[in-house]
Automatic annotation (TrEMBL):
<keyword id="KW-0813">Transport</keyword>
<comment type="similarity">
    <text>Belongs to the major facilitator superfamily. Organophosphate:Pi antiporter (OPA) (TC 2.A.1.4) family.</text>
</comment>
<dbReference type="GO" id="GO:0005789">
    <property type="term" value="C:endoplasmic reticulum membrane"/>
</dbReference>
<feature type="transmembrane region" description="Helical">
    <location>
        <begin position="185"/>
        <end position="204"/>
    </location>
</feature>
<keyword id="KW-0472">Membrane</keyword>
<feature type="transmembrane region" description="Helical">
    <location>
        <begin position="432"/>
        <end position="454"/>
    </location>
</feature>
<keyword id="KW-0050">Antiport</keyword>
<feature type="domain" description="Major facilitator superfamily (MFS) profile">
    <location>
        <begin position="30"/>
        <end position="489"/>
    </location>
</feature>
<dbReference type="InterPro" id="IPR036259">
    <property type="entry name" value="MFS_trans_sf"/>
</dbReference>
<dbReference type="GO" id="GO:0035435">
    <property type="term" value="P:phosphate ion transmembrane transport"/>
</dbReference>
<feature type="transmembrane region" description="Helical">
    <location>
        <begin position="301"/>
        <end position="322"/>
    </location>
</feature>
<keyword id="KW-0762">Sugar transport</keyword>
<feature type="transmembrane region" description="Helical">
    <location>
        <begin position="210"/>
        <end position="231"/>
    </location>
</feature>
<dbReference type="InterPro" id="IPR011701">
    <property type="entry name" value="MFS"/>
</dbReference>
<dbReference type="InterPro" id="IPR000849">
    <property type="entry name" value="Sugar_P_transporter"/>
</dbReference>
<dbReference type="GO" id="GO:0061513">
    <property type="term" value="F:glucose 6-phosphate:phosphate antiporter activity"/>
</dbReference>
<feature type="transmembrane region" description="Helical">
    <location>
        <begin position="145"/>
        <end position="173"/>
    </location>
</feature>
């Protein structure tokens, strides 16, 4: 007893956690870092846009350069043309369309290949193509085809990230406070965007090629880290596997039902990384995968998929065009615009956590998303009209808009996907969970491709029209949730059974 009481507080804290808990924490941190690196390497293109096409009349002309055009002499061909915004939209769309198409197939490969190898190769290849874009600066490449090809290839290899990370987390973690835990874990997207913006901003005004090369090296190094340290399954290191309640037994014990789905089983959040502290009955495994149309018949899948399409359209338009908008409207330099745009992602972190907490407490996933989207629409209008009046206003509006736009997006891609992937007809089929998740994320990726493309086409007519497009997308996202919001309102008013499964924290 004397030896035990003399232990340092830090050592006592360490010994309070089991070996399994340390491994699970280690895997959670690793997967967080991996997907942070993926998003970190996607961000530079949005920062560099304002450097590829600049207002050359405000730039000091070097004496040793023979200048024939005072308007475009400092631009990087082919982006020195009047349709430069359309060309930027082409580059964005090359990446996002390839990503949307590849996402539907990436999960198939991820299920059949060792996750450690699949993730490692994916990150190494992502690093390669990210660096190749930056090397265009040093190789003096001015071909749109070259940059478009690199974007297409990078979009394809980037699809290795989400399915593999989700599968790995699913091997290690059972169930817990889905909304909150997933909201915190899902902040890797915003953290990656922030770090990508800051790193790219350091080099954008001096040698924009390094804005791609440095993030490319970072994600490649993360791939090496994955190869040496990722443990795919608990059994590989003699840890216990996570266990889950069966939906039938859980409902018999507590009468609990999942939100949105009146007849659904309790969610198996294995695809989202929620932490479990209560091992119970193991869900029966099924080898037969659900069909595509079978997954579409699950109540809520179509509505949330279409909602995510428009929610992700808004989010990714900001991801790719916000720095250029700030640079054009507020007349910031490229680095300053990039740094300022990170506030949108900071707001996104807070919004994702807030959405998870509120939906956990109320049991209303659809209502939480709908309220945030409804409030986001007028906030986008206000940001476009008064957001640049002062520095304080800009900071406040960016934080608020980031929370309202990214909150529903984060909730749908994590906790909602888990809700919808565990309808009682699926009976815990993990392959069915993957199919439902692929449908929701794949549909959202279509919106992610459309948003930046539309912004590139519309922006030459004025930034006001771009914001009208974003506000319209927000409204459409709300409309697709109206049926589910009505059902949740009925339940709260006592017209239907109240869901308890996600309210118990």
């Amino acid at each position: 007893m004397k030896m035990k009481s003399s232990l340092a507080p830090g050592i006592r804290l360490i010994t309070n956690f089991s070996r399994d808990s340390w491994y699970r924490g280690f895997i959670l941190i690793l997967t967080f870092l991996f997907y942070t690196a993926y998003h970190l390497s996607r961000k530079p293109i949005s920062i560099v846009k304002s450097e590829l096409h600049r207002n050359c009349s405000n730039v000091i002309q070097p004496k040793d350069i023979n200048i024939t055009n005072n308007v475009t002499w400092c631009d990087w061909p082919p982006f020195d043309q009047d349709n430069y915004q359309t060309l930027f939209g082409v580059l964005d769309n090359c990446f996002l369309v390839a990503y949307a198409i590849g996402m539907f197939f990436s999960g198939i490969f991820g299920e059949r290949l060792p996750l450690r190898y699949y993730l490692s190769v994916g990150m190494l290849m992502s690093g390669l193509f990210t660096c190749l874009f930056g090397l265009g600066f040093y190789w003096n490449i001015h071909s749109l085809g070259y940059y478009a090809f690199v974007q297409v290839m990078n979009g394809l290899v980037q699809t290795t990230g989400w399915p593999a990370v989700v599968a790995c987390v699913g091997n290690w973690f059972g169930k817990g406070k889905r909304g909150f835990i997933m909201g915190v874990w899902n902040s890797h997207t915003s953290v990656g965007n922030i770090l990508g913006s800051l790193i790219a901003g350091v080099f954008v005004s001096t040698a924009w090629g390094l804005s791609f090369i440095v993030p490319g090296i970072i994600i490649a190094c993360t791939g090496v880290l994955c190869f040496f340290f990722l443990v795919e399954k608990p059994e590989d290191v003699n840890c216990s596997s996570p266990q889950h309640h069966s939906g039938q037994e859980r409902s018999q014990e507590g009468g609990e039902t999942a939100p949105l789905l009146r007849d659904s089983a309790i969610v198996d959040p294995s695809i989202n990384g929620a932490v479990s502290t209560e091992p119970d009955v193991i869900v029966e495994e099924h080898s037969e995968a659900i069909s595509f149309f079978g997954a579409l018949r699950i109540p809520g899948v179509v509505e949330f998929s279409l909602c995510l399409l428009f929610a992700k359209l808004v989010s990714y338009t900001f991801l790719y065009w916000l720095p250029l908008y700030i640079s054009n409207v507020a007349h910031f330099e490229a680095k300053e615009a990039g740094d300022m745009s990170t506030l949108f992602d900071v707001g996104g972190i807070l919004g994702g956590i807030l959405a998870g907490l509120v939906s956990d407490y109320t049991g209303g996933r659809a209502s939480t998303c709908c309220v945030m989207l409804v409030v986001a629409a007028p906030m986008l209008f206000l940001y476009n009209n008064i957001g640049q009046r002062s520095l304080g206003t800009t900071i406040g509006m960016l934080l608020l808009c980031g929370a309202l736009v990214n909150g529903p997006y984060a909730l749908i891609t994590t906790a909602v996907s888990a809700d919808l992937g565990t309808h009682e007809s699926l009976k815990g089929n993990a392959r069915a969970l993957s199919t439902v998740t692929a449908i929701i994320d794949g549909t959202g990726s279509i919106g992610a491709a459309l948003g930046p493309l539309l912004a590139g086409v519309i922006s030459p007519t004025g930034w006001n029209n771009v914001f009208y497009m974003l506000i319209s997308a927000d409204v459409l996202a709300c409309l697709f949730l109206s049926r589910l919001v009505y059902k949740e309102a009925q339940r709260w008013c006592g017209c239907g059974p109240r869901a308890r499964g996600f309210n118990e924290l």
